[in-house]
Write a structure and sequence with these properties.
Number of domains: 2
Oligomer: single chain
Distance between the termini: 32 Å
Strand content: 5-15%
CATH class of the largest domain: Alpha Beta
Number of strands: 8
Length: 275
């Protein structure tokens, strides 16, 4: 291990600490939910591993087995194709532990087939790094209520969390897991529109980003429907109405719906590939 002692005991262990798992770690430490020395993460990429340790103060290693030996709850943050091989290799090291998979497209049934652990899935997203995640959790056949309570507290510390049935996870993956990329595309397009109409690039991007942020926070705090919020902005025959008409003509809403549908179907395909 790069820090702490070999005989240390950790509350949370991460198998893989790349983009998504790294975001969760940063969120947990940043929120104060747990202190750095309660987390150990295994990451094969030396650069990523060093950056995570330097930024957060958590213990890091290149060895998954060290994490499995010394942590009570394991988060699986490796790529979907290697989730089953990694857990199969750990064998009995996961006995009497809780394993929470962060991977898309790998079913609980398949995971339970290669590990004796209690298994859950959690689909979250990269805004977890700043405590703004949208997470859904699903329980497995061995999941205890205490496991669910723990998962709700962990992911509740880094954003909003709901419990769903596993068959709904693929849609969650598409909506909240892939969703930030769709939103970034919207921000990029809004900024490009502002730039096309004469704004400096930096100004357009700042305004586009803050507009999306403000609109999202208003939607979350008022609990009004998007339709009700939209009516608060639109004046018949005004600028917003003209813009919405152009969006409808270009099929913007249909495109976003299609994006979620395509991402969901890809998650279902991945589940068939990772058995």
């Amino acid at each position: 291990m790069d820090s702490q002692t070999v005989n240390a005991r950790f509350t949370f262990g991460f198998l893989g600490a790349g983009k998504l798992a790294g975001s969760v770690i940063r969120g947990l430490v940043g929120s104060g939910f747990c202190v750095p020395h309660h987390i150990i993460a295994a990451e094969p990429n030396n650069e990523v591993r060093s950056a995570l340790a330097s930024e957060t103060g958590v213990s890091v290693t290149a060895d998954n087995k060290e994490v499995a030996e010394h942590a009570h709850t394991l988060f699986v943050g490796v790529k979907p194709a290697v989730v089953l091989p990694v857990l199969r290799d750990l064998g009995k090291l996961t006995t009497r532990k809780l394993v929470i998979s962060l991977a898309a497209g790998v079913r609980i049934e398949a995971i339970e087939g290669v590990t004796p652990a209690s298994v859950m899935r959690a689909m979250t997203n990269t805004p977890s790094a700043i405590g703004r995640a949208a997470t859904a959790i699903a329980r497995g056949s061995r999941t205890k209520e205490a496991d669910v309570d723990l998962a709700m507290r962990v992911f509740g510390a880094i954003g909003a969390v709901v419990e769903v049935r596993e068959k709904e996870i693929d849609a969650v993956t598409a909506l909240s897991g892939s969703g930030p990329a769709f939103v970034y595309t919207v921000i990029e397009a809004l900024a490009a529109g502002g730039e096309k109409m004469g704004l400096p690039p930096a100004t357009a991007l700042t305004l586009a980003t803050q507009t999306v942020l403000g609109a999202a926070e208003l939607a979350g705090t008022t609990k009004l429907s998007p339709e009700e919020l939209r009516r608060m902005v639109v004046t018949p025959g005004g600028t917003t109405a003209a813009g919405l008409a152009a969006m409808d003509a270009q099929g913007v809403s249909k495109g976003l719906i299609a994006a979620v549908e395509a991402a969901t179907k890809r998650g279902q395909e991945m589940a068939r590939e990772n058995r």
